[in-house]
Amino acid sequence: MTFSVVAAGEGPLKYQWKLDGTNVQNGTNGTLLLPNVQADQKGGYSVVVRNDWGAVTSQVATLTVLVPP
């Protein structure tokens, strides 16, 4: 699973991905790669993009994980 964001502004731009408001470890790029997604990775993903003049937070994208019975 891959989430990505496109941002524009005065660089350098810094990224921090969040899962349900908590920082995702190593989630500091414009793209967040989630290989082999597990049930505990479900939830609302967002990214904060910041530079020296401020920060903006994306809308939340919900990841649903279907587990076979």
Largest sheet: 5 strands, antiparallel
Distance between the termini: 21 Å
Structural class: mainly beta
Helicity range: under 10%
Rg is: 13 Å
The geometry reads as elongated
Sheet-strand content, in percent, reads 35-45%
What letter string, H or E per element, gives the SSE order?
EEEEEEE
Number of helical stretches of at least 4 residues: 0
Give the total of beta strands. Answer: 7
Folded structure, characterized:
This protein is mostly beta strands and 69 residues long. 0% of the residues lie in helices and 43% in strands. The chain is built from no helices and seven strands. A hairpin with a 2-residue loop joins strand 5 and strand 6. The chain is elongated and about 50 Å long.
Task: Give the key terms.
69 residues; 5-stranded antiparallel sheet; two-stranded antiparallel ribbon; elongated
List the helices and strands and how they pair.
Elements: E1 2-4, E2 14-19, E3 22-23, E4 31-33, E5 43-51, E6 54-57, E7 61-63
Antiparallel strand pairs: 1-4, 2-3, 2-5, 5-6, 5-7
